[in-house]
Amino acid sequence: MENGFRVRPHVARAVAGVRHVLLDYDGLCFVMPDGAGPWEVFRALPQTPWAHFSRSMPYMLWRLATHEPELAAAAEPIASAVELDGALTARMTRGLPEVLATGAAAGRRMWVVGGISETAMRAGLRAHGLESRVAEIAGRHGLDGDTLGVVNVAVRAARVLGVDPARCLLVSGRGEVLRAAGQSGFAVLGVPCGHDTRKWLGDYAPVVTNLERLGQALTARGGPG
Q1: Which of 3, 16, 154, 191 is 20 to 30 A from 217, comparing alpha carbons?
Q2: Both 116 and 210 in a single domain?
Q3: In this structure, are residues 40 and 18 in contact, taking their beta carbons and an 8 Å threshold?
């Protein structure tokens, strides 16, 4: 029990031995505004190939890169600009500065990973004075297929840094991210933050209530080996 909070066994197992904690930028750390999505990019294109439209920006860019490379080349800088504007106005999730500090103090390396432009992510973190508190920041790089999607970004970052995914805990408020991350070998933990419900997240991972509870779990006994 830490500070009156008892870490449940399945949560303790998820964080035990984890050295690196990967926080999902737009699925946990921040709430991106409605005007920073694929529709804003799609409607700015010179053509509108509806067969490739998606509510997921990474998937839409992947579809365009695969089937309409010229349109993809036009779409990517628009997406980056939209994401930058969104990152600078996004609402930060309560408790983010604290969990970055408490996790680092407990010997965890705190990363932020995301499916949006890495430049936009860095700008958003910098605007809140958090960029220097994050050990690693990884996001989308142009149309590089290895960086289209949060889990692809996490896999690539782990590979580049020589880190075993099994020593990484990916934390998100989106069920599809938790599912894909678990299938890619990461330890996973859900935090409801306005995307998916606790019940939905619980189908894919142990769940804690908020970032404060995440911080308490990270500082409990049985930390990184």
Answers
A1: 154
A2: yes
A3: no
Residue 158 lies in domain: 9-31+91-219
**Distances 70 to 39, 56, 140 between C-alpha atoms, Å:** 18, 20, 19
The sign one gets for the Cα dihedral 114, 119, 121, 122 is positive
The model's pLDDT over 54-108, given as tens digits with 9 standing for 90+, comes to: 888 999 999 999 999 999 999 999 999 999 999 999 999 999 999 999 999 999 9
Do 25 and 44 lie in one domain? The reply is no
Q: d(Cα 100, Cα 85) in Å, to the nearest integer?
A: 24
Predicted model pTM: 0.92
* Cα separation, 87 vs 29, whole angstroms: 11
Does residue 188 share a domain with residue 155? yes
**Residue 221 CA: distances (Å) to CA of 85, 98, 209:** 40, 19, 19
